[in-house]
Amino acid sequence: MRSSRTRAGRRTALLAVLGLTGGLLLTAPQPASAANLIKNPGFETAGTDDMPYCWKKSGWGDNDVTFETVADAHSGGKAMKVTLTRRVDGDRKALITESAECAPVVTPGKQYDLGLWYKSTTPDTSVTLFRHDPTAGWQYWTDLKTLEMAGGWTEATVRTPEVPAGTDRIAWGVSVYGTGSVTTDDYTMDQVADPVPDPVCTGTAEECANGRWDVLPTKNPVRSMHSVVLRNGKVLLIAGSGNSEQMFAAGTFTSAVYDPQNGTYKQITTPKDMFCAGHVQLDDGRVLVMSGNKGYPSADGTIGYQGYKDSYVFDPVTETYSKTNDMNDGHWYPSATILGNGDVISFGGLKEDSTGSVTAELWSDAEQKWLELWKVNQTWSYWGLYPSMILMQDGRLFYSGSHTFGNNIPGTGSAIYDYDANTITQVPGLRNKDERDQSASVLLPPAQDQKVLIIGGGNIDSNPDANRLTDVIDLKQPNPSYVAGPPLPQGTVDLGAGKVPQTGNQGKMYVSAVLLPDGKVLETGGALHNRADPVYESSLYDPATGTFDPVAADPEERGYHSSAFLLPDGRVMTTGDNPGNGSWNHDVSIYTPPYLLKGERPAITSVIDTEWTYGDTQRITVDRPIAKAELIRPAAVTHSSDPNQRFVDLPLSVDGNNIDLNVTSNPNLAPPGWYMLFAVDANGVPSVAKWVHLQGPQALSATDASAHVHDFADNLEGKVTGPGKKRTSQKVGPTVSGCDRHYGSANVCVPTDFPPTVRATTKARCDWLKKNDYGRLKVNGKDDPLRLDRNRDGIACGKGDVTLRQLP
């Protein structure tokens, strides 16, 4: 499951961003960089002469000095201590080694920000700089800053003057010229960015502030609730029977491939009812589709939905499906998470007999098949429907609490699953855990930060107003816990009589969340109640500030069975909506974020190699300066859920228009597969994406790079459970989808519990159904649990039903 199978092995792979992608990954001297230019900035990697790699003893004069690598570090396990016990004259310092291998490359005329953490027992210190002239060699440049005495770790920062002409490298350190000691750690050096010209608005003032939505003239030809962005930039839209009992009975199963370049759709032969299947992109770019709908509920509601065992692979080149071996269980609404070795793990969903599957399934990338049950670790736990299982940087899985239909799992509603140990540890802090039905959760940008955001949600069983809660968890903490995030902004809601402002704590379920190339998250769409009352609101969440910024709202209803996803050109596409009356919204919306209305966008003019390996340095060229670059995994989304969505930062080194990108060495941060590569300028304007293929073995271990190794979600205090008693399934009620099947057809959802504003009378319920366009509703069987057929003529909400004396 993990690239490191043991707990100790996991720890060695826990590299901070500098370790995963820092200077030691570069095989040759690099020019001025947008990332930290210091190699071995925390003294973690050993060198020669009893000094850390890329550091040397330096100084002059008559004095007595000791150089020590000590364990009293600001971060990691090492720091450098320089102590003068006697001084007549001169100074001593730990200095960056004055060599082409170690000394940072600089550009004449540029300035650099220097930083370090220190403790000092002497006032006689200075940050001292040396510069290298290709003709004259190394020479003293300047002293910049005196460090005040400090008993605890203190940060010091200073900006250099402009680099003199004829300088290609500098070296620096802290000089000690009085008796006492200075301990330093975590050095940084960053080039000061050139002033960024103000963006030029290319739309209206409103559009430039909040973006723009356009409804496309061509409608989506299929009732798709599954959307997968393929490695060629096209979009696979899977409907199966499209939640239509009539199409299911006729064997009409559909998919389409949408081409954003020309706005056309191609209908695809679809072999099985993939309605409410699971899907994930394999490392070669094909799409693994697992399970789907074997049967709709019976007319009287005594039998629920059934999931089949079949599985298929969709090839984006031939645009065809091919069958794989069967899964061990049926899984209607399964999870699907790709792992760092290319395997896929899946949990939850309903079996062929409508019970809940307790079987974990594992797709082997090496064998290209679902493994036999006895080869897969099992806890015999029921995770529910579409449980959001996010791969963590050490190979464990984080269940965020996002799921579909009804209540959450028992306990705290969130957990960490360790496949190797076969244990589940509950994680605290998730608020209103049983009102997270069709919430959205995402691994926030960048993936290296290991923070997860969960947004909104409701409960189709009790059908309260959907909430506006957001919670954030930092999985880098030794004992992580959700903490409250900012409340979701409110918009307008259509309760059947036109749009009105949301009030109180009204939020939304069926919410979509999309990672954007500028590092923000677009949340959009949703509804206030079970397949009813659409909410019109969109906003951008900024992980750097932890705030939401309301933007333009999608003009279309986007509730149940809607999807939102990022296109390679940086826009967002939204599809679908399937309210309880069984209708379908075939309109497609496109969101143009504000960053595409700020003027000319940068372009990636070439990618030297599109086949990338972990730990690589990859070169691209751009047409103008950029500030950052990242990989974004293409969407495979349904029902507010895409646990594989992630944004991986690529620290970069800049040489004019040539950009060297440092690729993470940890496949758990960026599982193998095809990614969209974006280059982003200082105004947050992204390029059009280029496609690159990331694969290969882990290139480096922690000992190969300067890294700040830290504990990672290790000292968990939550309740821990191991494998339970082997069982066949979990009993699940036939009304799991929140629909009372005593009325209408299988694709019509009369709610088992009406919204709280609807009184529990026949007239009030029938008025609500009429207002929401339910039309004629046949009663299935003799039971009438919602009292909609008072005159017992077999038709719910007929004229005679609402004129009879009402019961409470």
From TrEMBL:
In this chain, the stretch annotated as Disordered covers 716-736
Q: Which CDD domains match?
A: E_set_GO_C
Gene3D superfamilies, alphabetized: Galactose oxidase/kelch, beta-propeller (2.130.10.80), Galactose-binding domain-like (2.60.120.260), Immunoglobulins (2.60.40.10)
SUPFAM superfamilies, alphabetically?
Answer: E set domains, Galactose oxidase, central domain
Sorted UniProt keywords: Signal
* Galactose oxidase-like Early set domain sequence ranges: 601-693
Q: Which domain of life is it from?
A: Bacteria
The Glyoxal oxidase N-terminal domain sits at 255-581
InterPro entries xrefs: Gal_Oxase/kelch_b-propeller, Gal_Oxidase_central_sf, Glyoxal_oxidase_N, GO-like_E_set, Ig-like_fold, Ig_E-set, TAT_signal
Q: Which residues form the signal peptide?
A: 1-34
Give the UniProt record's GO annotations in the biological process aspect: carbohydrate metabolic process
Which protein is depicted?
DUF1929 domain-containing protein
